[in-house]
């Protein structure tokens, strides 16, 4: 009897051990499957690494994502007010042409609704301008609030004691309003690129230059050279292109218009050939503007203009940024250029402009958001 009980006990222990072993194997298989799903290749490994090392802290919001397309503007204003001088002044500011393109193109697409129609459908729009004219105010001001009804939303309020003072502010300082919403759109694009960018391009830039930059995932064709990198969509229409190159930093005269165009022409002629034999990219010198700027607290030169292909009928807009890498005694140039002969180019070139601001030199850390330089206010939903 004792022998039978002992045998039965041994069998139970053996069965229990088999069950535990089965559970352990199943768990290991699940973990392996999860690893395969979440880590199928080098590309996604790089995305995860980038997000860990570069990502800024973000708060979780229960608000919906802001609606509307980039560079769309919703104005909340009655028709009579819209047709009066103040409304015309606001329209003239928003209707300004985009700089650096060959054909006229507006900086913003404008929609207007009456305040009585400003319901829940419109309150989640990404860019909103409201008017608050009351004699309780002493001077005209631009004020803004963010993420009131939706994530990524910017609401600007035009506060003034009367319409005449607001008309004057818009006429004399309308560039502040444009600058504000352009920065808001650039910040949105930079935040998007932070979460979703091309890891292969990022790795190429790291190996060639020791820098980091966030290139859109759709730019998935590449050319590598000595101190040179190109990534593009290469679709034949609505093409976006990113270029990065370096050259030795010699003296402050490096940052003149003539020197910039000379250097750009020589680099592009060597690295960006056209379709027909002997053709190459060059710069339309008469349409180039350069300006001094500050990026991450350091000097930078911004350039905007038109490119063309010598020996072919191709061309389009470009935007560029030149910065000094002091540690390596070199100038680092990042550029975006667009080829879209039958399409509007605003959203394409602005997207590439955002890419330029994601550049981190070897001695730099995270990308920073633009600041707005205007008074920020709180708008309580339901009370505006």
Question: Key features?
Answer:
single chain; 384 residues; alpha/beta; Protein Transport Mog1p, Chain A; 2 domains; eight-stranded antiparallel sheet; six-stranded mixed sheet; 9 helices; disordered N terminus
Please characterize this protein's 3D structure:
The chain is 36% helix and 25% strand. The N and C termini lie far apart (87 Å). The model is unreliable at 1-55 (pLDDT under 50). The radius of gyration is 28 Å and the shape is elongated. The protein has 2 domains: 72-193, no CATH class; 197-356, Protein Transport Mog1p, Chain A. By secondary structure, the protein is α/β, with parallel strands linked by helices. The strands form 2 sheets. Strands 6, 7, 8, 9, 10, 11, 12 and 13 form an 8-stranded antiparallel beta sheet that branches. The chain has a 6-stranded mixed beta sheet with strand order 2-1-3-5-4-14. The protein contains 9 helices and 14 strands. The chain has helices at residues 2-38, 42-54, 79-83, 85-94, 120-123, 163-195, 199-209, 257-271, 346-356, and strands at 72-76, 109-113, 127-133, 141-146, 154-160, 221-225, 228-232, 239-248, 280-283, 289-295, 298-310, 315-325, 330-339, 375-376.
């Amino acid at each position: 009897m004792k022998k039978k009980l002992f045998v039965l006990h041994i069998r139970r222990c053996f069965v229990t051990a088999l069950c535990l072993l089965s559970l352990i194997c199943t768990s290991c298989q699940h973990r392996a499957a999860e690893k395969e799903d979440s880590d199928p290749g080098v590309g996604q490994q790089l995305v995860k690494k980038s997000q860990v090392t570069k990502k800024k802290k973000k708060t979780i919001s229960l608000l919906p994502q802001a609606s509307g397309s980039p560079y769309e503007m919703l104005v909340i204003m009655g028709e009579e007010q819209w047709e009066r001088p103040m409304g015309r002044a606001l329209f003239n500011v928003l209707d300004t042409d985009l700089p650096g393109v060959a054909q006229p193109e507006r900086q913003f697409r404008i929609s207007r609704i009456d305040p009585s129609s400003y319901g829940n459908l419109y309150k989640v729009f990404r860019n909103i301008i409201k008017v608050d004219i009351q004699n309780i105010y002493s001077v005209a001001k631009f004020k803004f609030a963010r993420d009131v009804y939706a994530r990524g939303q910017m609401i600007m309020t035009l506060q003034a004691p009367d319409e005449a003072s607001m008309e004057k502010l818009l006429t004399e300082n309308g560039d502040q309003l444009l600058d504000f919403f352009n920065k808001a759109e650039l910040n949105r694009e930079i935040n998007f690129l932070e979460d979703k960018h091309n890891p292969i391009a990022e790795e190429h830039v790291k190996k060639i230059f020791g820098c980091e930059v966030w290139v859109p995932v759709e730019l998935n064709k590449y050319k590598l050279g000595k101190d040179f990198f190109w990534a593009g969509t290469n679709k034949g229409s609505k093409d976006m292109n990113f270029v990065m190159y370096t050259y030795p930093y010699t003296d402050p005269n490096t940052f003149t218009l003539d020197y910039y165009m000379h250097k750009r022409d020589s680099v592009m002629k060597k690295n960006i050939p056209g379709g027909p034999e002997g053709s190459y990219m060059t710069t339309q010198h008469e349409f180039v503007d350069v300006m001094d700027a500050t990026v991450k607290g350091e000097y930078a030169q911004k350039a905007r203009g038109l490119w063309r292909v010598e020996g072919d009928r191709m061309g389009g807009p470009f935007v560029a940024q030149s910065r000094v890498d002091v540690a390596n005694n070199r100038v680092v140039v990042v550029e975006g250029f667009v080829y879209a002969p039958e399409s509007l180019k605003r959203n394409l070139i602005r997207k590439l402009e955002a890419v330029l601001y994601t550049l981190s030199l070897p001695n730099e850390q995270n990308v920073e958001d633009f600041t707005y330089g205007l008074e920020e206010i709180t708008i309580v939903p339901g009370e505006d």
